[in-house]
Amino acid sequence: MLEIKFVRQNLSQVQKALEHRGDAADLQTFKHCEAQRRDLLKESEALKHQRNVTSQKIGKMKKEGLNTDTLTTEMRNVSGSIKTLDSAFKENESAIKSIMTQLPNIPHVSTPIGADETENPVVKQFGQPPNFDFDPLSHWTIGSQLQILDFERAAKITGARFPLYFGAGARLERALINFMLDIHTGEHGYIEVLPPFIVNSQSMTGTGQLPKFEEDLFKIHESEYYLIPTAEVPVTNIHRQEILDEKQLPVYYTAYTPCFRSEAGSYGKDTKGLIRQHQFNKVELVKFVKPETSYQELEKLLKNAEEILIRLELPYQVITLCTGDLGFSASKTYDIEVWMPSQGRYREISSCSNFESFQARRADIRYKTTGKKGTRYVHTLNGSGLAVGRTVAAILENCQQVDGTVQIPDALQPYMGGMQKISYGT
RNA sequence: GGAGAGAUGGCCGAGCUGGCUGAAGGCGCUCGCCUGCUAAGCGAGUGUGGGGGUAACACUCCACCGAGGGUUCGAAUCCCUCUCUCUCCGCCA
Question: Which residues surround strand B, with CB < 7 Å?
Fold first, then answer.
């Protein structure tokens, strides 16, 4: 959520920012409601003041045994008016809130202006796509041949777009989770968190999934609970409605969770393999920081995520999302894309964003400096470090051998019990 | 699932026979004083959000005692609903 005062005072700037996103918002209604809101508030507060003063007077008079009927009757009317005004105020406020919660974040100045994903500039590249002297297979073909992935049976158990791993495949997934968590906690200074995988609607609103993107979520039948689409939701909401001490900041959390996404509207895209599933595993990085440091923290976060790919020796590139491709809550986002040989292109494996105070304002996460008056909103950031299923896919494809086996990256072998390659029957 | 108890400021903890209680007291914290020594004592201050106001302060008004409703001239205090916590019983990985 943006700051109401800021939107009021910078209406044209906000309008322009939204246009860059390709999002035409109705700010006139906002402007109108907002002005009305203050009028209603003024009027109601004046009456409340009158009521407070007179009620006290009535109390005193009663003690002295005086008759208060006239005043009481008068105040009955005042209270009635207050009630009317307050309900109008509430209505008005919920109208404003509904506009505000649907407004996306304003892109940072360093976010390039562009219409869609074709205009995302490449920031850097690491490694070289491998040269195969044979036609590289897709990860789902490799996985099926090695009998470590089984999409048919997964479909039987549940439906399309669910994964089922066996043997070395299941172990590879688990090894990656541990590998990532160990690096982030042991070397990058993150605190490991294991949060609930189901959250309430307030948490979903706090991070921006609700109210606008409910169709992307799995909702638990007959409740206000949702399956998490990313650990970002429970982990960011750890500090919802809290005032942190400045000395605590920055706070770094990392969490492994499964993620559940309905993938509404993605029919026909990536129908095969591990790229786009209703359920997948992810190790997430989440930060709460002071506003003045948040862009340095974004660079560090990106590096922390990249480090995993570097250790796994997987070729990747980093892009900056342009305004037209930027997510709803983000001010700036880097995507890390890993090379997928069977597709001959880079595919997203991590998304690292600075949300500035957008989520903090929704979720009411502030900090206080001792000795100083008032509070400020923290800046929140998060990034995948990394999406585990897609990492498995990248390893299978990049490390495949001509004989159909898969070489396990050196750094990961200790996590695989010393296994060096995945071959049929392992 | 059944029975009961509770939720107050950064923390502990009064108030809960309705009326200067935004909230006693204590702890903590900040500033000052004192003390020749990392202690003790003394004094003052110390919530959040919003409206008005100011160059910025000051100042002023409104709201907030788990959340949301209700009763009343007036509610932390009475009533209802919900959420959470605790105790006992049952069930259970």
Answer: A 4-5, 38, 41-42, 45-46, 48-49, 51-56, 58-59, 62, 72, 75-76, 78-79, 83, 90, 243, 366, 368, 370-371, 373-375
